[in-house]
Amino acid sequence: MTVWTAGFGVPDLAARSGLSTDALGRLRTDETLTSVDDERIVAAGDSAAPSDLPLRMSCQAAIPLGARAADTVLSRIADERPSPLNQLFAGQCISLGRRDGIFQFAHRYDVALGLHIDGRPGARLKELVCQGIVKHLADEARKPGAYRLHRVSGGAKRRQLLQARRGEAPAPPATAERAV
Ligand SMILES: Cc1cc2nc3c(=O)[nH]c(=O)nc-3n(C[C@H](O)[C@H](O)[C@H](O)COP(=O)(O)OP(=O)(O)OC[C@H]3O[C@@H](n4cnc5c(N)ncnc54)[C@H](O)[C@@H]3O)c2cc1C
Fold first, then answer.
1. How many CB atoms are closer than 10 A to CB 21?
2. Candidates 33, 58, 89: which one to mutate for ligand 1, based on the most atoms within 8 Å of Cβ?
């Protein structure tokens, strides 16, 4: 048996650029993924540290962050105010071969729920996730703007964390968020 392990890392491009980065070398940005030093520069995915509150390194975060970064660029070109990120998570999944896997469901703000699917159905679900990623890319290539998951609300949690850090009282939740 071979056990292969690999860690996650961040390319050193941002750190070498002289722009502000966090301890891991991720570009420090605001909530629109714009560099805190230069509004002509945006970051997405593993290399971004928005508001010093980076998201879990994952394709689950990187894909919507990529779309969010693209929206920020398009907003700036149109001389409009870019929207802040509002990341939605679904869970974590891993498969071991085709017959075993686990899908651990999570709150949309990325904290595990007491619900999972394991065994062959778990592996099948992971496979569907992998197929979905390729489908997202193909759909976006065919019809730019088709990808919209980055616009689905991740809830109020992130905003509350940011407010707590700034020492502000939390704002009342929006109606759509209260129901969750
Ligand atoms: C072994 C492994 C398993 C993983 N499994 C999962 C999983 O099951 N589910 C999940 O959600 N996530 C998983 N991840 C994490 C996921 O792959 C990453 O979080 C995701 O790919 C980040 O996307 P990204 O676009 O930010 O960066 P990347 O996908 O790393 O893309 C960055 C690109 O930039 C290029 N680059 C770097 N420096 C430069 C430079 N100076 N100039 C030009 N190009 C440059 C790199 O070559 C690379 O192609 C896994 C990661 C690893 C290593």
1. 21
2. 58
With cut-offs at 50, 70 and 90, classify the pLDDT of residue 8: confident
pTM score, two decimals?
A: 0.89
Cβ of residue 60 lying under 6 Å from some atom of ligand 1:
yes
pLDDT tens per residue, range 54-84? 999 999 999 999 999 999 999 999 999 999 9
Sorted by where each begins, the domain ranges of the chain are 14-85, 86-169+176-180
For the domain spanning 14-85, the CATH number is: 3.50.50.60
Q: What spacing in Å lies between the alpha carbon of 61 and ligand 1's midpoint?
A: 11
Phi, psi of 153 (to 5 degrees): -70, 135
User: pLDDT for 117-126, tens place per residue?
Assistant: 999 999 999 9
